[in-house]
Amino acid sequence: MVQESNVVSNAVVGQLAVSKRGRDRGVPYLVLEIIDDAFIYLVNGDRRRIENPKRKNVKHLQFYPAVAEHLAQQWEAGQQVGNVEVRKVIAGFMQTVVGNDSDTRGVEK
Questions:
Q1: What pTM was computed for the model?
Q2: Is 67 helix (H, G, I), strand (E, B) or coil?
């Protein structure tokens, strides 16, 4: 039996993740908070704003090595980060990290 490498222990706050399942398939997010071993809260600054994060099963996400450390530090310190800044970080990550990955079908480039 093959185990997937994207378990929650690998996820960190501020990390880029793309949805693999559900009606939001292909949508990029940043990890806002790790709830437990199976679920995390995600934001993308557009439909899932910081005020209303998406709760998602980690099995349904593809994690990438890109981490917005400055956003993660602000979130963990309890500071407010704007949705515009989240969108800018995700857009930058999508151009540099993801590229033409076949698992992200449906993502606008």
A1: 0.79
A2: strand
